[in-house]
């Protein structure tokens, strides 16, 4: 990843610290989601690599991210925070729960009401998820004759009312492949989804409609502004103008968080008002929507030029991991009905088991020394954990460390004297150490317990012939 430098106002930190949330920022060109939180009276910044992250939605339990060809559903496995270091730092732990492959549909903004709704920009519609298909069409603009993966109008933003899509933004009303590009400077529209009508037109690349405080807010990205539409007067007003391409909007209390991007000198942005700015920035700006003033900022000075979306996680410090983290293997979320008849242990054996499983993976890869170290850690958690005693003995024998293997396997038999394979391995160890009588004793016991252990019988016969 490129070198990333940033700066922020003290007021930005104070707001995050006071309201106790984590700000997530998707930066699709850098394939990163940044997490800005607070801990020990300091700003923290973490990042997660995700393929082309775009639209996001979050609440206390869920974090959805639209990426290159899928929607990732990260769930808050709150019990997993107990396993994280340092202790008591993290308030939430988001791990993958579901991944839905949508194909490359250029997922833009998301919102969750009675379903998860997302803007399917390539197909010019609002969609939902359905298990047996890539996506389910919820609504398409009346001016789109046929759904095709050609981005006809660059539908991009969504706002819910009564838990269903109510407003949307698009860069044009064209019905041809990439037709919006011809009208991007002033062909944008704000759409009433339920009434199938345009309520504002001649907008410059509108994005991010949101209903908040009984008003409809939206960004006119081509002008770098945050605007508000009054339902009663049906008039729109500019709240503030920001130094870049505005995209990504969230609210809390009296504040709006607005994502701001540097515009590229390209055909996509040519002709826009913001290209005339002498200085363009990238970051997140905090706006007081009552005083209409900028009250804080976080700015990427180097390494990040474009922000796609922002969202708020209602925790000051969030841990987030992908499928490759072992927490995913041993963390569970149960249905309320199932939880009443289930018990997920929180004692040492759960941790011993997870370390044991990781050690097995290393052993299977041929990394036996590393496997032995993890088996030891497993036994530190639970000295009576038989599977780790057994398989650590196997690994030690494989490496020729016979005395250590013997000691571990004898301990295993103290825990469970019914496992034929342990007797068989001990018999082989004593054979290699030229302790014939012990070898015969353990091989005989192994074969008595399991007649399918032909190798034990074979070695026993070999010893008896000498």
UniProtKB/TrEMBL annotation:
InterPro entries: CHP03032, TPR-like_helical_dom_sf, TPR_rpt, Ycf3/AcsC/BcsC/TPR_MFPF. TPR repeats lie at residues 420-453. It comes from the Bacteria. Residues 11-318 form the Conserved hypothetical protein CHP03032 domain. Keywords: Repeat, TPR repeat. This is Conserved hypothetical protein CHP03032 domain-containing protein. The lineage of its organism: Bacteria, Pseudomonadati, Campylobacterota, Epsilonproteobacteria, Nautiliales.
């Amino acid at each position: 990843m490129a070198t990333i430098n940033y700066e922020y106002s003290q007021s930005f930190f104070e707001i995050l610290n006071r309201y106790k949330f984590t700000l997530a920022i998707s930066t699709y060109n850098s394939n990163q989601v940044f997490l800005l939180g607070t801990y020990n009276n300091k700003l923290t910044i973490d990042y997660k690599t995700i393929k082309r992250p775009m639209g996001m939605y979050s609440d206390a339990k869920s974090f959805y991210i639209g990426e290159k060809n899928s929607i990732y559903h990260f769930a808050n496995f709150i019990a997993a925070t107990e396993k994280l270091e340092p202790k008591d730092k993290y308030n939430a732990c988001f791990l993958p729960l579901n991944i839905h492959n949508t194909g490359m549909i250029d997922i833009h903004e998301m919102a969750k009401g009675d379903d998860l709704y997302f803007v399917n920009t390539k197909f010019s519609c609002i969609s939902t998820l359905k298990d047996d298909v890539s996506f389910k069409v919820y609504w398409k603009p009346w001016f789109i004759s046929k759904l095709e993966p050609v981005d006809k109008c660059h539908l991009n933003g969504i706002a819910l009312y009564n838990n269903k899509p109510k407003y949307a933004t698009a860069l044009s009303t064209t019905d041809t492949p990439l037709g919006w590009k011809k009208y991007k400077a002033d062909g944008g529209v704000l759409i009433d989804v339920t009434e199938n009508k345009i309520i504002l037109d001649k907008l410059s690349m509108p994005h991010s409609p949101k209903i908040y405080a009984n008003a409809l807010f939206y960004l006119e990205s081509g002008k770098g502004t945050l605007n508000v539409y009054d339902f009663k007067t049906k008039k729109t007003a500019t709240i503030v103008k920001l130094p870049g391409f505005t995209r990504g909007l969230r609210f809390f209390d009296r504040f709006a968080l607005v994502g701001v991007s540097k515009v590229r000198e390209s055909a996509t942005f040519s002709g826009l008002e913001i290209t005339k700015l002498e200085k363009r920035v990238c970051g997140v700006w905090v706006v007081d929507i009552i005083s209409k003033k900028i009250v804080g900022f976080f700015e990427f000075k180097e390494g990040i030029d474009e922000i796609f979306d922002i969202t708020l996680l209602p925790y000051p410090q969030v841990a987030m991991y992908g499928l490759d983290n072992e927490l995913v293997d041993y963390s569970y979320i149960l249905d309320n009905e199932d939880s009443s008849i289930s018990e997920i242990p929180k004692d040492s054996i759960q941790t011993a088991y997870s370390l044991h499983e990781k050690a097995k993976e290393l052993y299977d890869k041929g990394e036996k020394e590393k496997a032995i170290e993890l088996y030891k850690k497993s036994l530190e958690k639970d000295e009576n954990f038989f599977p780790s005693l057994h398989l650590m003995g196997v690994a030690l024998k494989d490496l020729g460390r016979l005395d250590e293997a013997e000691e571990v396997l004898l301990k295993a038999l103290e825990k469970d004297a019914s496992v034929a394979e342990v007797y068989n391995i001990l018999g082989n160890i004593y054979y290699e150490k030229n302790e014939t009588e012990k070898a015969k004793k353990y091989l005989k016991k192994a074969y008595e317990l399991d007649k399918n252990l032909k190798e034990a019988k074979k070695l026993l016969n070999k010893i008896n012939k000498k």
